[in-house]
């Protein structure tokens, strides 16, 4: 039974985001001392609402609470929040410190370590944590197996991932999906197709993610269009046609294969298209020289209050292929600046190519010289570890 908590969280001033970090440390350490795992997660929820991430003091205690309560999804979310800040090495360093301090490794802790290693791409450390999972008797847990398969595939050790997959007798569809996806992402199309056939023979029922993976495979197959259309019919038959991920995968397939009519039909049948749906169709129309339709769709998207992102702009810029589109290209560039759309590397490249395609030769050569000079400044700043200067030159 959990010890009663002596701190009343409701009476604390959680609305103050600038509360000192050591205050949060003190609260969570006190709750851990009382072994009140539920209270620890409640405190973490308050921290999250104030955009405060756990530090090296509180994170082990929060993850331990997740493990004690078997709150796997919460633990994974906390880990992802930390990883998204770019602290991959720090997360691994924290894991090593936990081991050195003799802390017990629970399921959530090992899951977090495996996912961090996948980002860090260290084979030796990955194998050591795999052995630790076996020692802690977590090697039969499907969460751990799935994470290990993903880790080995991201590191590039497909043989290890395959051996691990074969050692599992379960027909869990998530494991099959992970393995097929791993082969697909590495361009091993034949192996992915063979695994899908084996999945069918084993009687494992595919789910929505399986369909999305197979649709992505069809792009690289010689008979991909025929298979894609057959799979589309299967999706309708199984009542999965309203799944947003499947619809976007179909849109992407028909767009990649330049089947405009099929793509338009899918889009028209979509009740609530998301930004990804709009982006895919705009790019499909632009690539097939239907520039007017692409522009109309972009304007329609704005009129319906869908906020375009950098991918949308890259898609519509694909329609600006010669100097007759210079005015339109400049309008789009101005739209990006006006609406504060982040100019990430793909958008930066698309804007550069637009000006190269649309401006006269003399201006294009001048633009090219400017871009080469800026790239040199970025490279020089980065090599001298002047990250601020590098970012400043890049966004110019």
UniProtKB/TrEMBL annotation:
Pfam families (alphabetical): PPR, PPR_2
Keyword RNA-binding: no
Alphabetical list of InterPro entries matching this protein: PPR_At4g14850-like_plant, PPR_rpt, TPR-like_helical_dom_sf
GO molecular function, one term: RNA binding
Keyword Membrane: no
Source superkingdom: Eukaryota
Swiss-Prot/TrEMBL keywords: Repeat
One GO term of the biological process aspect: RNA modification
Protein name from the UniProt record: Pentatricopeptide repeat-containing protein
């Amino acid at each position: 039974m959990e010890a009663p908590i002596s701190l009343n969280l409701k009476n604390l001033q959680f609305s103050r985001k600038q509360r000192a970090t050591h205050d949060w440390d003190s609260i969570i350490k006190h709750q851990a001392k009382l072994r009140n795992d539920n209270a620890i997660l409640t405190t973490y929820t308050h921290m999250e609402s104030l955009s405060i991430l756990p530090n090296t003091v509180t994170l082990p205690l929060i993850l331990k609470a997740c493990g004690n309560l078997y709150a796997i999804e919460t633990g994974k979310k906390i880990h992802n929040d930390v990883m998204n800040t770019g602290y991959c090495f720090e997360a691994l360093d924290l894991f090593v410190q936990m081991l050195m301090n003799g802390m017990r490794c629970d399921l959530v802790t090992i899951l977090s370590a495996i996912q961090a290693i996948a980002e860090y791409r260290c084979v030796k450390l990955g194998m050591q944590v795999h052995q630790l999972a076996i020692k802690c008797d977590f090697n039969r847990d499907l969460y751990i197996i799935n994470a290990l398969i993903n880790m080995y595939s991201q590191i590039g050790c497909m043989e290890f991932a395959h051996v691990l997959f074969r050692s599992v007798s379960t027909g869990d569809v998530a494991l099959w999906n992970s393995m097929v996806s791993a082969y697909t992402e590495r361009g091993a199309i034949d192996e992915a197709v063979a695994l899908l056939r084996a999945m069918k023979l084993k009687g494992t029922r595919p789910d929505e993610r399986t369909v999305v993976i197979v649709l992505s495979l069809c792009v690289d197959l010689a008979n991909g269009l025929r298979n894609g259309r057959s799979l589309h019919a299967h999706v309708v038959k199984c009542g999965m046609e309203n799944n947003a991920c499947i619809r976007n995968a179909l849109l992407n397939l028909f767009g990649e294969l330049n089947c405009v009519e099929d793509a338009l039909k899918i889009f028209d049948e979509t009740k609530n298209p998301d930004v990804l749906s709009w982006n895919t169709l705009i790019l499909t129309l632009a690539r097939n020289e239907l520039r007017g339709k692409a522009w109309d769709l972009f304007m329609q998207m704005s009129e319906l209050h869908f906020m375009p992102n950098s991918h949308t702009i890259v898609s519509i810029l694909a329609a600006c292929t010669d100097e007759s589109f210079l005015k339109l290209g400049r309008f789009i560039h101005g739209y990006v600046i006006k609406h504060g759309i982040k100019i990430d590397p793909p958008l930066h490249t698309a804007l550069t190519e637009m000006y190269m395609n649309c401006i006269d030769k003399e201006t294009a050569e001048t633009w090219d010289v400017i871009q080469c000079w800026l790239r040199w400044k970025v490279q020089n700043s980065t090599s001298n570890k002047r990250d601020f200067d590098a970012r400043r030159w890049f966004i110019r």
